[in-house]
Amino acid sequence: MDTEIKLRKAKIEDRDTIWNIIQQSIERRKQDGSTQWQNGYPNLGTVESDIAKGFAHVLTVNNEIAVYAALILNDEPAYSTIEGAWLSDGEFVVVHRIAIDEKFAGQGMTRKLFDHIEDFTRSHGIQSIKVDTNYDNIAMLKILESKGFSYCGEVLLADGMRKAFEKIII
């Protein structure tokens, strides 16, 4: 049987599954010795807000949620001030809060997520994808490099400075 992988908007009935996946990721970051996501963010309210605003997306494998991400169009106030320079100043998709279910970890799902986000971006005629990550999130830094993202500088988010990346899509 072929594996079916799809990106779709999350629904309110996905909330508990998404929150469970995020809690797994918070614990994984803690086990890795990271400070990222260790201060009460993201939380259940974040998930509910993402769903309500239409930002919440899930990557499903045979209809089972494997990965969560918030996709936000043209709106990340912290990105207006960068120590460095973005590659473009056109429309963009911001990717935040990527979290993977433990049972799908190590299967390349985050790379598949980015493939689907690129398709989403292209299909909406949007110029680029912007993303930031913590300095100590080595796995994400490697994924961004492997997916062709360019390091653009640093941005200040509520919980500190982050490395900022962009990839031109069209």
UniProtKB/TrEMBL annotation:
CDD domains: NAT_SF. GO terms for molecular function: acyltransferase activity, transferring groups other than amino-acyl groups. It holds the Pfam family Acetyltransf_1. This is GCN5 family acetyltransferase. Keywords: Transferase. InterPro entries: Acyl_CoA_acyltransferase (IPR016181), GNAT_dom (IPR000182). The keyword Transferase applies. PROSITE patterns: GNAT (PS51186).
